[in-house]
C-alpha cells in the first residue's frame, strides 16, 4: 500500500470514526448541560483546560519520536525502532511522575482558579479524577507512535471509536439514571484505561519486536540529539499550551466559572471542526514525512502548497458557516439563555481561522525535524498572550481574552515559523507571506458575502440553518473556483479529490 493510499485510509477511517464519536459526544454534552447545568459544564471545561496545561509533553514528544521513526521504519531497522521506544519510555515515565506531582500541587489553589458555588470537597474529587484520566493517557504513547509513524493509524482509530462510543453510551445512561457528575467521571477514567490496554496490544501484535530490549542501543540511537529535540519540543509545547489552553482559566478568574460554561458551548462546536482538521493533519503527517525523507524537495514544496490551499478553503468555509448559524443553533440546542454576544463569535472564528491556515506549517515542522529553530518564538507568544488576555479581557470582556490568542500568534509564530519552513525548503519567506495574504483576501470576500447575505434570511429554525449553510457552500465554491482555477495547487487538489472519488 503506497503513501497516498495509507494517508487516505487513515483520514477516511478517522473521519468516519470521528463522525460517530461527535454525534454521541454532542448527545452526551446536551444531556449533561440540560441535567447538570452551566455550573458543572464550566467546571468540566475549566478542569479540561487545567489538565491540558499540565499535559505539556505528550504531543511534542510524539512528534519527535515520529520524526526519528520515519527513517528507521523505511530501513526496516527493528533494533533502532525498539531502542527509540525504550528511550522515550524512560522520558514518559518521568513525565507521568512530574504531571502527577504538579497536578496534586495545584489542589490547594483550586479555590483561586475555580469561582463556583459547588462544595469545595467535591471540586477537589472531580479535579483528581480529571488528573488521573490525563496521566493514564501517557502509559502506552511510546508504542502507539510506532503505529502512527508507519501510517497504520486506522487501527488505533477503530479502537478509539469503540472505546469512546462505549464511554458515551455508559455516560448517557448513567446521567439519565443518576444525574451525578462523580460517576460520569469514573466511567471516563475506566474507559481511558481500557482503551490504552487494547491499543498497547495492537502495537505489540503488529510490532512484536517492541517487547525486546535493543542489543545495540548506544550505536543506533542518538541520545544527545533526541534529548536536544525533546527539550526544544517541550519548550514549544509549554508555550503552545499556554496559548491554546489558558483562556478558560483566565475567564474563570476574571468573570467566574459559570461564564466558562456559557463560552464552552461555543468552543465545543468550534472544537468539532478542529477535530476534523486534526484527523486530516494526522493522516497527512506520516505520508508527508516519508515523502520529505526521500529528499524530493520540489515535490514536497508542491505538496505543501496544495495542503495550504486545502486548509485555507476548509477554514474559510467553516468560518462562514459558523458565523452564519451559531447564534441560531445555540438556542435550539441548549436554550436562549446560553446565547452570548456576537463579538465572541467573531473572536472564536479569528482564532480558528488562524489555526487552520497554519496547519501546514505545523505538519512541516513536525515532519522536517524543525524543533530547535522555533523553541523560543512560541514562548514569546505565550507571554504576550497572558498579558493581552488580561488587558483585553478587562477592556472587551470575554471576547478580548479569546482574541488575545490570535494577536499573540500573529505578532510571533505566524510569520516566523512559516519563514523557517520555507527557508528550509530553499524558498523565500515572501512566497509564504504572499500565499497567506492571497488566501486571507479571498476568505474575506467569501466570509463577508456569506454572513451579509445570511443576515437577510430571517429564518432561525433548523431549516433556516440548512438554507444558510447552502448559501455558504455556493459562495465558497464559486469564489474559490473563479480565483484559483488556474493555479497549480487547485489543479493538484482537484486531481487528488477525483482519485479519492474513483477509489
What key attributes describe this structure?
single chain, 85% helix, 2 domains, mainly alpha, 22 helices, 503 residues, 0% strand
**What is the gyration radius calculated from CA atoms?**
23 Å
**Average of the residue pLDDT scores:** 83
The SSE string, one letter per element, is HHHHHHHHHHHHHHHHHHHHHH
How many helical stretches? 22
Note poorly predicted spans: none
Question: Brief description of this entry?
Answer:
By secondary structure, this protein is mostly helical.
Can you describe what's shown?
This protein is an all-alpha fold and 503 residues long. It has 2 domains: 1-246, no CATH class; 295-503, no CATH class. Helix content is 85%, strand content 0%. The chain has 22 helices and no strands. It has helices at residues 3-36, 38-54, 58-75, 78-106, 110-113, 120-136, 141-149, 153-178, 181-206, 217-220, 223-245, 247-255, 257-293, 297-333, 342-357, 359-367, 377-396, 398-411, 413-424, 429-455, 462-484, 488-502. Helix 2 (38-54) packs across helix 6 (120-136) and helix 14 (297-333) runs antiparallel to helix 21. The longest helix is centred in the middle third of the chain and has 37 residues, at 257-293. The chain is globular. The mean pLDDT is 83.
Amino acid at each position: 500500500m503506497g503513501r497516498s493510499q495509507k494517508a487516505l485510509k487513515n483520514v477516511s477511517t478517522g473521519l468516519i470514526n470521528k463522525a460517530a464519536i461527535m454525534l454521541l459526544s454532542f448527545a452526551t454534552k446536551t444531556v449533561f448541560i440540560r441535567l447538570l447545568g452551566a455550573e458543572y459544564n464550566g467546571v468540566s471545561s475549566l478542569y479540561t483546560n487545567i489538565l491540558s496545561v499540565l499535559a505539556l509533553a505528550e504531543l511534542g514528544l510524539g512528534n519527535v519520536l515520529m520524526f526519528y521513526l520515519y527513517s528507521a521504519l523505511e530501513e526496516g531497522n527493528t533494533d533502532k525502532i525498539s531502542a527509540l521506544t525504550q528511550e522515550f519510555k524512560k522520558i514518559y515515565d518521568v513525565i507521568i511522575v512530574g504531571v502527577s506531582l504538579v497536578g496534586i500541587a495545584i489542589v490547594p489553589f483550586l479555590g483561586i482558579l475555580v469561582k463556583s458555588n459547588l462544595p469545595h470537597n467535591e471540586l477537589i474529587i472531580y479535579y483528581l479524577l480529571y488528573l488521573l484520566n490525563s496521566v493514564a493517557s501517557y502509559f502506552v504513547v511510546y508504542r502507539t507512535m510506532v503505529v502512527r509513524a508507519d501510517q497504520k493509524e486506522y487501527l488505533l482509530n477503530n479502537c478509539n471509536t469503540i472505546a469512546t462510543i462505549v464511554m458515551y453510551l455508559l455516560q448517557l445512561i448513567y446521567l439519565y439514571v443518576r444525574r451525578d457528575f462523580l460517576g460520569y467521571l469514573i466511567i471516563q477514567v475506566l474507559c481511558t484505561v481500557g482503551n490504552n490496554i487494547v491499543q498497547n496490544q495492537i502495537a505489540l501484535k503488529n510490532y512484536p519486536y517492541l517487547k525486546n530490549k535493543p542489543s545495540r542501543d548506544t550505536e543506533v540511537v542518538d541520545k544527545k540529539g533526541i534529548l536536544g529535540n525533546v527539550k526544544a519540543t517541550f519548550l514549544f509545547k509549554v508555550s503552545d499550551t499556554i496559548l491554546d489552553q489558558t483562556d478558560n482559566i483566565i475567564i474563570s478568574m476574571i468573570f467566574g466559572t459559570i461564564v466558562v460554561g456559557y463560552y464552552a458551548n461555543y468552543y465545543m462546536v468550534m472544537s468539532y471542526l478542529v477535530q476534523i482538521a486534526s484527523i486530516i493533519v494526522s493522516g497527512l503527517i506520516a505520508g508527508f514525512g516519508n515523502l520529505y525523507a526521500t529528499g524530493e524537495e520540489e515535490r514536497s514544496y508542491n505538496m505543501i502548497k496544495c495542503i495550504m490551499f486545502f486548509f485555507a478553503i476548509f477554514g474559510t468555509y467553516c468560518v462562514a458557516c459558523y458565523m452564519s448559524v451559531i447564534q441560531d443553533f445555540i438556542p435550539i440546542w441548549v436554550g436562549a439563555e446560553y446565547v452570548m454576544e456576537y463579538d465572541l463569535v467573531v473572536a472564536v472564528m479569528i482564532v480558528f481561522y488562524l489555526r487552520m491556515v497554519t496547519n501546514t506549517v505545523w505538519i512541516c515542522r513536525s515532519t522536517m525535524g524543525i524543533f530547535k529553530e522555533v523553541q523560543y518564538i512560541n514562548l514569546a507568544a505565550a507571554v504576550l498572550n497572558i498579558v493581552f488576555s488580561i488587558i483585553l479581557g478587562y477592556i472587551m470582556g470575554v471576547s478580548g481574552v479569546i482574541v488575545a490568542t490570535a494577536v499573540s500568534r500573529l505578532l510571533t509564530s505566524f510569520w516566523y515559523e512559516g519563514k523557517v519552513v520555507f527557508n528550509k525548503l530553499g524558498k523565500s519567506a515572501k512566497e509564504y507571506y504572499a500565499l497567506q495574504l492571497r488566501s486571507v483576501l479571498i476568505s474575506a470576500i467569501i466570509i463577508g458575502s456569506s454572513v451579509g447575505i445570511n443576515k437577510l434570511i430571517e429564518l432561525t429554525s433548523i431549516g433556516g440553518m440548512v438554507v444558510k449553510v447552502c448559501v455558504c457552500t455556493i459562495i465558497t465554491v464559486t469564489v474559490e473556483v473563479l480565483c484559483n482555477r488556474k493555479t497549480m495547487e487547485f489543479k493538484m487538489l482537484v486531481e487528488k479529490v477525483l482519485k479519492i472519488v474513483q477509489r
